[in-house]
Structures are given as structure tokens and as C-alpha cells.
């Protein structure tokens, strides 16, 4: 017969495996919408392969997602240094009405995707300038990511409000320059 403590260790290990399995299933569920890495960050209408939302008042919709992963590469006491990889992707449910594919509309939608690119740069910058501890590295990165995401999403709302979804040509030109300048400064 095994000692009681070994049995508790086995139970704890099996519980850990169960939680890990559930976590992996959760990750697969979140990835249900396929996405596409956009080489060079420049969108083309051929990237828009999603099913058209017939209830939408818009001519196109750009859905983006920012992925990240990291690896701890050094320990210094209780602090860690990480190799952080961050990349934006266009989600497969992004769509455009076939008869509305104009250069102006694509430029506006590019602005939306550029917010994902900005999020990637800003998150990596913030994470790189933060002291990360071994016991809260995941939580700290999540906190930084979510704060940066909230800021970018607010800016994206402002973008659509001020450009009136591309119809205010003067504001659209201002935002095109502003976004280009932000990307240049960030990258």
C-alpha cells in the first residue's frame, strides 16, 4: 500500500492534468474563428473572406485579434526577463460587400487593422519596461495587455466617430496621417 502523502500527490497531479486539459480545450474554443497574419501589415480586399453580415449598416467590417506568447529567458532573484512575441492578425470573419470595394474604404479598414498593429507595439513596449516577477508574470502581462487594449479600443471608437466611418473625408485624412505617425513612432 502507498503512503497517504504519495496518494495525495497523485491526486494533486491528476487534478493538475485535468485543469491543464480543460485549459487547452478553452484555448481551442477561443480559436474557433480562424485568423490570418498580414505580411507587412497591409490589407488587401482578398483578405476579407468572412460571411457578409446582412444585418449590418456597413460596407465592410474588420475584425482583428492580437496574439502573444512569451518565454522566460533569465532569472534574477525573483524577477524574470522574457522573450515576448506579439503579432496582430485579421480574423476570418472580416468581410466586405463585393460591390463596395473602393480604395477609400480599404484605407479606412486599414486604419482599423493598424490599431491592432499599434496594440502589438505598445504592449511589447510597456511589457519591456516593466519589472516582471516570477510569481505574477502571467497576471502582470495580462494586466498590461488589457490596459493597452482598452486604450486602443477607445482610440478606435474615436476614429470611427470622427471619420464618420470614412464619410468625413477631411477627418479621415487627418486620422490616416495620425495613425501613420503613431506606427512610425512605435515601430
How would you portray this structure in words?
There is one protein chain. The chain is of the alpha+beta class. It has 2 domains: about 30 residues; about 150 residues, no CATH class. It has 4 helices and 6 strands, in the order αβββββαβαα. The strands form 2 sheets. Strands 1, 3, 4 and 6 form a 4-stranded antiparallel β-sheet that branches. Strand 3 and strand 4 form a beta hairpin. Helix 2 packs parallel to helix 4. The radius of gyration is 21 Å and the shape is elongated.
Structural class based on helices, strands and sheet pairing? alpha+beta
**Biggest pleated-sheet summary:** 4 strands, antiparallel
Shape descriptor? elongated
List the helices and strands in order.
Answer: HEEEEEHEHH
Q: If helices are DSSP runs of H or I spanning 4 or more residues, what is the number of helices? A: 4
The stretches of 5 or more residues where confidence is low (pLDDT under 50) are: 1-6, 10-30
Number of strands: 6
Strand content: 15-25%
Summarize the amount of helix as a percent range: 40-55%
- How many angstroms does the end-to-end distance come to? 62 Å
Question: How would you summarize this macromolecular structure in one to three sentences?
Answer:
The chain is built from 4 helices and 6 strands. It has 187 residues and is α+β, with helices and mostly antiparallel strands. Strands 1, 3, 4 and 6 form a 4-stranded antiparallel sheet that branches. Strands 2-5 form a two-stranded antiparallel ribbon.
